[in-house]
């Protein structure tokens, strides 16, 4: 049994901070330590106490850096790793012009495997230890994704997108093949190691009613599998959806009619919601997912976080690469802050860091396993350096509180602020640093 100790300034959340003064929402230990055993956090405490408990353990001293739970990205597209930063279009044109052609390439297992290595390198470089991804329509993309996750010991969620219309040749399945392929992938991957399969009808526009019916059957047969899709991201998308499903009361109703809206459903974007949709979301326990960099980049609109939270709805926050423009959850929180500013909503840094860790874990129903530094949970940890760049170090000279330090990380940080990442207790960033060019 190998035991290791990580020493540093520990920050972990117990619930969403109500405001910047809500000290009961988190634990901060200035000279803290985590005792890691078998990939789990066995003990958390003051360094002196942990050192007495495990005098033989190897100690890695990260002071004065912050140790937090690894970031969780609740909405990202694995096959868009080479779509990110594609110019000049809003959602539907962007999909047709850039995204769909690129996703056709993931039919090739070699391409998918090479991209998976690069994708996971990027997640780790940016401090993300768990993500929920849309793979392409091809089972080969899912195989590559989960095989790479397994190789790295990462808790990853994902699934093949279901799409049988309004997409080019080579990127459509059928209701039956969608059912067969998804069922086989669930049997192989769901619950294997740290993998979780997510039933993934892409969105209403790319699925026929027959396929939506099949998605509903898959959802019924696999209640433990989360469901992910897209909802009310863009005005043209909403109008087109209404024309394709004229009997639906609104966009959400399309998914409701097929049994796809439940407590473990993730709905990307959810920007332009009607009052009835908000009520139905609240009643279902489903989770909207805020994708700030994507919403700005594609000109989609401004997410109403407080409006939804006020109805008791728990939202996730995510990058949505490649509509999103960064793998960094720090940059995502920064852009999220700016969007909420435009809505007159002030996101406190304590709330922001809780969102990217514990709250996103709660959105995935995994708060007992990831998202905190609690004993018994996985040792998926990020080490944050608020002085990572000269500009950050200058600003930090004037920082007087933990909240100010967090806000510097949020507003100025990116992958350079991620000093190290631990996956199930093993250092993962140093191991892959500089590997990008070799893999490509
Ligand atoms: N809606 C359906 N597919 C997608 C996608 O790939 N990206 C975004 N941002 N929205 C979508
Ligand atoms: Zn998306």
Automatic annotation (TrEMBL):
Question: Which keywords has UniProt assigned to this entry?
Answer: Hydrolase, Metal-binding, Zinc
Any single GO molecular-function term of the entry would be:
guanine deaminase activity
**Which pathway is it part of?**
Purine metabolism; guanine degradation; xanthine from guanine: step 1/1
Q: Which domain of life is it from?
A: Bacteria
Q: Name one GO cellular component term.
A: cytosol
What residues does the Amidohydrolase-related domain cover?
A: 67-426
Output the Pfam families linked to this UniProt entry.
Amidohydro_1
GO terms (BP aspect) = guanine catabolic process
- Describe the reaction catalysed, as an equation: guanine + H2O + H(+) = xanthine + NH4(+)
> What's the EC number here?
3.5.4.3
Keyword Zinc part of the UniProt annotation: yes
Identify which cofactors the protein needs according to its UniProt entry: Zn(2+)
Q: Which InterPro entries match?
A: Amidohydro-rel, Guanine_deaminase, Metal-dep_hydrolase_composite, Metal_Hydrolase, Metallo-dep_hydrolases
Q: How is the cofactor bound?
A: Binds 1 zinc ion per subunit.
PANTHER family named in the record: GUANINE DEAMINASE (PTHR11271:SF6)
General function of this protein: Catalyzes the hydrolytic deamination of guanine, producing xanthine and ammonia.
The family classification in the record reads: Belongs to the metallo-dependent hydrolases superfamily. ATZ/TRZ family.
Question: What is this protein's record name?
Answer: Guanine deaminase
Native organism is Fulvimarina endophytica
């Amino acid at each position: 049994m190998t035991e290791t100790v990580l020493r540093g300034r520990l920050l972990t959340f117990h619930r969403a901070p109500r405001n910047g003064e809500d000290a009961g929402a988190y634990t901060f230990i200035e000279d803290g330590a985590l005792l890691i055993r078998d990939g789990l956090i066995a003990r958390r405490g003051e360094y002196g106490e942990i050192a007495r408990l495990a005098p033989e353990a190897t100690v890695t001293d990260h002071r004065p850096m912050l140790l937090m739970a690894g970031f969780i990205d609740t909405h990202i597209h694995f096959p868009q790793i080479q779509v990110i930063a594609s110019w000049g279009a809003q959602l539907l044109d962007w999909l047709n012009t850039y995204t769909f052609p690129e996703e056709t390439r993931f039919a090739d297992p070699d391409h998918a495997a090479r991209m998976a290595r690069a994708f996971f390198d990027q997640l780790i470089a940016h401090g993300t230890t768990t993500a929920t991804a849309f793979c392409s329509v091809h089972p080969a993309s899912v195989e590559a994704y989960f095989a790479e996750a397994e190789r790295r010991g990462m808790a990853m969620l994902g699934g093949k997108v279901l799409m049988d219309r309004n997409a080019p040749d080579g990127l459509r399945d059928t209701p039956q093949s969608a059912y067969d392929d998804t069922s086989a992938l669930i049997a192989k991957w769901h619950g294997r190691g740290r993998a979780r399969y997510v039933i993934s009808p892409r969105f209403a526009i790319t699925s026929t009613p027959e396929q939506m019916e099949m998605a509903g059957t898959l959802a019924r047969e696999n209640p433990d599998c989360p469901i992910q899709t897209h909802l009310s991201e863009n005005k043209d998308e909403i109008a087109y959806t209404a024309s394709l499903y004229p009997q639906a009361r609104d966009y959400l109703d399309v998914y409701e009619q097929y049994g796809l809206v439940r407590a473990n459903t993730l709905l990307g974007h959810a920007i332009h919601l009607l009052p009835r949709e908000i009520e139905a979301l609240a009643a279902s326990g489903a989770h909207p997912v805020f994708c700030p960099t994507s919403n700005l980049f594609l000109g989609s609109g401004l997410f109403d976080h407080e409006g939804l939270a006020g109805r008791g709805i728990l939202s996730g926050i995510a990058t949505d690469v490649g509509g999103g423009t960064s793998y960094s959850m720090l940059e995502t929180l920064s852009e999220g802050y700016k969007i909420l500013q435009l809505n007159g909503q002030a996101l406190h840094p304590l709330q922001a860091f809780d969102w990217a860790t514990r709250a996103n874990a709660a959105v995935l129903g995994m708060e007992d396993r990831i998202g905190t530094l609690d004993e018994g949970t996985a040792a998926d940890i990020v080490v944050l350096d608020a002085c990572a760049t000269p500009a950050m170090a200058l600003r930090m000279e004037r920082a007087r509180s933990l909240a100010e330090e967090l806000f510097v990380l949020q507003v100025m940080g990116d992958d350079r602020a991620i000093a190290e990442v631990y996956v199930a207790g093993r250092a993962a960033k140093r191991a892959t640093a500089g590997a990008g060019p070799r893999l490509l």
